[in-house]
Amino acid sequence: MVRHLHDSNRKMPLEGDSQFKQLKKVYEDANEMAGKTLGVVGLGRIGIETIKIGIGLGMNVIAYDKFIPTKDIQLNFFDGQSLTFHIKSVDSLETIYKQSDFISFHVPAQDGYLVGEAEFKMMKNGAMIVNAARGGVIDEKALVKALDAG
């Protein structure tokens, strides 16, 4: 998604011989994950594993969970060492929307959308969303409108 791997794995074998220089220019513009902000909504089991991946990629991680104010996350390494990260839930979803380059949702079924037109307007340009939660978290009509708007 961020590194254009899906597209490059498809196009390079087909067009790499004839258009290598053009394709290389397109794919070298990929984003690095390190230093970007990952916003995780939901500090359950899957949200915690997502945070571990973000930390491993060198991302700045912020999280929101209205039921879990803090969580200690332990990363275990191959040589028996481990590090514990203290994750404190931010005060509001608005903070997640405004600060995150990537937002990943890991919440149970909701009444109403967590992301609608107003929330999309708060997000950074180019913010990426992963909805690993159930349907109904994101207003799909607002999503299409936001994508069309750029």
UniProtKB/TrEMBL annotation:
Keyword set, alphabetical order: NAD, Oxidoreductase
Native organism taxonomy: Eukaryota, Metazoa, Ecdysozoa, Arthropoda, Crustacea
Protein name, UniProt field: D-isomer specific 2-hydroxyacid dehydrogenase NAD-binding domain-containing protein
Keyword Protein biosynthesis in annotation: no
A single GO molecular function term of this UniProt record: NAD binding
Record-linked SUPFAM superfamilies: NAD(P)-binding Rossmann-fold domains
Pfam families noted in UniProt: 2-Hacid_dh_C
Residue intervals of the D-isomer specific 2-hydroxyacid dehydrogenase NAD-binding domain: 2-150
Family: Belongs to the D-isomer specific 2-hydroxyacid dehydrogenase family.
Organism for this UniProt entry: Notodromas monacha
Membrane-crossing residue ranges in chain numbering: none
